[in-house]
Amino acid sequence: MKYVSTRGTAPILSFEDAMLTGLARDGGLYVPETIPVMSTQDMRALSGSSYEEIAFRVMRPFVGDTFTDEEFKGCITRAYAGFSHTTRAPLVQLGPNHFLMELFHGPTLAFKDFAMQLIGQMFEVALKRSGKRVTIVGATSGDTGSAAIEAFRGLDAVDVFILYPHGRVSEVQRRQMTTPIESNVHAIAMDGDFDDCQARIKDMFNDFEFRDGVKLAGVNSINWARVLAQVVYYFSTAVSLGAPDRKFSFTVPTGNFGDIFAGFIAKQMGLPIDRLVIATNQNDILHRCMQSAAYTKTGVKPSISPSMDIEVSSNFERALFWAHDKDGAAIKGLMDDLSQGDGFTISENAMGALKAHYDSGMVDEATTSAMITRALAETGEVLCPHSAIGVAVAENHITSTPMVTLATAHPAKFPDAVEAATGERPALPQRMADLFEREERVTRAPNDLAALQTLIRERIST
Ligand SMILES: *Cc1c(COP(=O)(O)O)cnc(C)c1O
Q1: For the whole model, what pTM was predicted?
Q2: Which of 46, 49, 290, 415 could make a disulfide contact with 53, Cβ separation 3.0–4.6 Å?
C-alpha cells in the first residue's frame, strides 16, 4: 500500500515511512492511494471475534509489508492488554436506537489510547529493526499528550516532547503528562492556545534542517497510523450490533477531525454507515462551515470541553481532499488561504461531496452541562463534557437508523465540569488513584519556534 500527500507534491511513502514521518514534506497529510474494500462476507466473519482479531483484519491491508502478520498481531495484542475492559470499546444503550461507545477504558482514560498504544508498539518494532532513533514531538489540547507519553515512556529509541497550552488543560490531563519519571519524557507548557502549539509543531516539520537533524517524528492526529487504529472500533461496534446487514450512523465529538475521519474510512471500506455527525462545542468552526461553506476563524474560546477547543482542524484537510476528488493543488490553495488569512470558502461541488456523508451540530456550554445532568438522571451514565456534546447533538439526528455516539473520555478526566453538573465528583479508577500525590516535572516555554528548537536540541539523548 502506497501513501500520498493531500497536497500532491511530497514523496510517495510506504506505511512505515508515513507512520514514522507524520507530516508530509509539502505540508500535507498522508492518505492511502486507494482504500481497500472489505467484502460483506468478510465483514460477517468478524461477528463474535475479539477486538484484537477485528483490529488485525481491518488494518492488515493498510500496513503492507511493514510488518509480518506475527509482528503486527504482537503489536495489537500488547497495545490493548492494558485496557481495563475486555471488549476494549464496550457499548451502552442510552435509548431507543441510541447507543454509546465507551472509548475511555485505556490507560489515560480517553479514546486517544486506542491509537497511541498501538503506535507505541509499532514504532518500537520498526525502530528496533532499523536501529534508528527518533524525536517525537506533539501538540496537545490535553488527551493526545497524555496518551503519547504513556505509550512512549521508557522506550530506548525515542524522546517524546509534548507541547500543551499553559493553563488550558485539566489538572488530571496535566498531571498525566508531568508525573511520568522516565527521562525520555519532556512535558512543555507553552504560552498560547492549542492552535499555537500545533502551529509551532508544523513549523518544526517545515524546517527541514531541524527536522532531519533531530529526526523528527510526529504522532499528532495527522499521523495516518492513528486514523487507521481508530477505524477499528467503528467496525467492532457496527458488527456487534448487526452490520453489515444493518446500517448505522455515528455522532462524534470533534476537534481535529481525526476520530470522525476514521469513520469515513470505515465507510469507504464498505461498512454500511449512513450519516457521520460532527458534534462541536462553542468553537464551532466546522459546524458553521458545514452550514455556510465558509471555514472562517474567529478566535478560540476556552470551554468545559477543552479537548475540542480548536479552530485549525487538521484532519479536515483529509475530508476536503476526498471532497475535491483528490486534487492536491486545490487543497494547497485552500490551506494557503487559511495560513495567510482567516480561512477559505469551499466550492459548491465540494460542499455537496461533504454533505453526502457528514451532518453537524453545535452545543453551547449551558446545554453541555444540562446534558450531563440529564444523562445521569435518565440512564445512570456519567458523561464527560465532550461525550455529552456528542449525545446532545446525536439526539437531534436520530432517525430510524440506529445512532452510535462516541464517548471520548472518562468523566474523571474532567471532574470540575462533571461535578458542577451532577453535584458529585467522579473518582479516578483505582489504578491511578495516587495521581495527585506524584511529583510534577514540566518546562515552561514561550510561543517561539527558535526557543523551542533549542530546548529540544539540548534535551535529546543522542
Ligand atoms: C481529542 C478529543 C476529541 C476530538 O477528537 P478529534 O479526533 O481531534 O476530532 C474529543 N474528545 C476528547 C475527549 C478528546 O480527547
Answers
A1: 0.95
A2: 49
